[in-house]
Structures
1.
Amino acid sequence: MKAFQKIQYATLAFALLLLFSTNAQELTKTSPEDVGLSSERLNYLTQIFQDYINDDELSGATILVARKGKIAYFESFGKNDIENNVPMTKGSIFRIASQTKAIVSTGIMMLQERGKLLITDPVGKYMPAFMETKVAVAKDDGPYEIVEADRPITIRDLLTHTSGVSYGYGIAADLWQEAKIQGWYFADRDEPIQATVNRMAELPFESQPRTKFVYGYNTDILGALIEVVSGESLDVFLKKNILDPLGMVDTHFYLPLEKRERLATVYSATENGLERAPNPGGMVGQGAYVDGPRKSFSGGAGLLSTSMDYARFLQMMLNKGEFDGKRIISRKTVELMTTNHLPFPRDEGQGFGLGFSTVEDLGLRGELGSEGEFAWGGAYHSSYWVDPKEEMVVVYFTQLIPAGDIDDHGKLRALIYQAIMH
């Protein structure tokens, strides 16, 4: 009897060990067929993206597709650096620009979970400069007038891009230009993010709170808010609470010097093919992500990352806040973040949650996918989406600005979904 019990205990212990090991090894590679995809049909994806490289439309790219918690497809194409004949690899590091927004938005939600703030709070409760903001209103007989905002903007307004703040190119563009705050690129700024953001509060926004979707500095303001509420710089807060727990070892605001060679080169689409973007340049350029002041942590567009790192973050969101045995945020928080919050349409069939676009009506959107999908992308032509119905994560990284009329985003989506067998 005792021998039988020992066997039972040993069997149970082995089963628990196996279960733990399985849970701890998320995002391991598997064959496409193991997760309901067709290897044969995925070859179309490989062929088409190799054609973009051969036709000088893309310098290089990585594509990662995970389904049911495992990587079914992960390929790199082309060159990290064409002129120096450096191949693109799965470990290449990319400027992910606005894909930073989802990570910073998650940081804000973590602070709510810890009782440090409520997203219904006025931003001015923590950053007094934002308690009373202004709005530029275009006039029929002249340029514009400046009026008081109807109410203080809230943290939720920033998360949903309904605060009215743009990237400084709208109605009162002259005042934003005079303040030297225009565009999403911050890496060359020789001042901390809070200094820049507090100057934004003095400038007129584009619309009254929660009346329009205005894409702009919302998440940069959220990044500064994280610093104020947590008492830590944004880079330290994100590293401690999101990046390190998720094992995102290659995600940085500014690249460690020993990783310099892994940073993919930025190219621009021209009538004559690809041209290397200037160094450092500005929004179109290589940027000051290695050599520069290293002072401004842009919550809206500042991070560098790899396909694998970003897939780990997205898999956590697909897993309702958990990854590799670690709980990052709660299931209910993920539900709130990936639900449409807009009281008006943004694009046909699409809404916007707390840091992500959302698909509300598949037919109105008119592209392959699923209702409930959440997504976004970056200025350097990167893209991602999470499809909970298909249990799928897609990360597409490249470095192309401007991108011209290349149709790679649409082809990527079509060629992934056509490979689903069941």
Note: The CA atoms of residues 107 and 238 lie 7 Å apart.
2.
Amino acid sequence: MTITASLRSLLATLLLLTPLVPASAVVLEGTGIATIRGGDMDTAREEAHKAALRDVALQYDARIRSEDTVEEGRITNSRLTVASSARARNVRVIDERQVGNALRITLKAEVSEDAGNCHVGEAASLKKRVAVTGFTVQHPDQTRHGRLDDAGEVLPQMIQARLQAQGNLQVLKAATTQLYPDVTNAPTARQFDNRLTNVTQVARELGAQFVVAGVIREIGVEAPEAWGSSVLHKIGRSLSPTSRDRRFIADLMIFDGFSGSPVYQKRYDTSGQWNAGVGESVGFGSIGFLNTGYGEAVDGLVDQMRDDIQNALSCQPFMTRITRVEGTRVTMEAGATSGLRPGDTLALYRSSTHFDSLGATPELKDADIEVTLDSVFPEYANGLIPQYGALENIQRGDIAIIW
């Protein structure tokens, strides 16, 4: 088998762009160009920005895989795949200019090896839907100092905002929904029908592939006497300084919305000085809160939560539910906002449960059928399968997957 001349040329170019020994982190410049169609600058800017990031990634690290199909000694099909495990941080645009009907963007980014990269294929370019639900506060009495009683709703809102800013996930807001009335045993909460949690119900209602939930285990000051207003407390503070540190401990969990199974769990722990004056802090995440040493520490922890969520979900396939089957036409509940386009193909899996274990995790079985999309709308898409869905037992509630 041989590679065509054009493929050899592209291969040589990419190899020249690839450093022999990638550094742990380097700052690189990348340039992307996109055509302005119908005066739509926003779309052109987004496409040029993505192209510039691809340029940066290929400069840092690229892997090339060639697949040739040979029939009777003749190449009938040749496919070249380029992949990169580079991770870009601190991205900033340093130049943007319009040249004719094209938009050119140059940016700088700090690039390093993505240690958590699992080399997912086409799913890596799609936006998975994740619902971030409210965090339950295990000890509500600890929120008294600084009026942090809104922590259970504001913390997920902060996570939502930072995930949205990254732009590679579809973030669904559900900060007022709490999965754990019983925080002692979280993340396990057994329901009346013997099912574990109500994750699947929440995911189905919101159309989410993943559900993020959590429990704030600790949010109190380490020495409550440091904040007492009585004469005795004031005398005690004058005789010996007391600690004004405050702790923050939270458990974060990510669940698969189709089965309810946990895919990620981690405990986050930090502390800092709570030096807000009386009335300066008016809630979790407020300006007064963030201006304290404690607020700065928690804010950094929220960034870590965002990164961990993205890393955990980057290794998962893209999955969506089938909502309707009519003859050979299949409708699914994901569309253009998820990154799907006409011509995309998804593998179909049957979802089933057994009568003797109705509350158990649904089983997925490969139907050995692919659906090819022919019309894509913002929130749903239609496609065709080779045979009638009824003959293959494809029905509402089954799953379509891109790996």
Note: Residues 1-23, 78-83, 189-196, 230-240 have pLDDT under 50 and may be disordered.
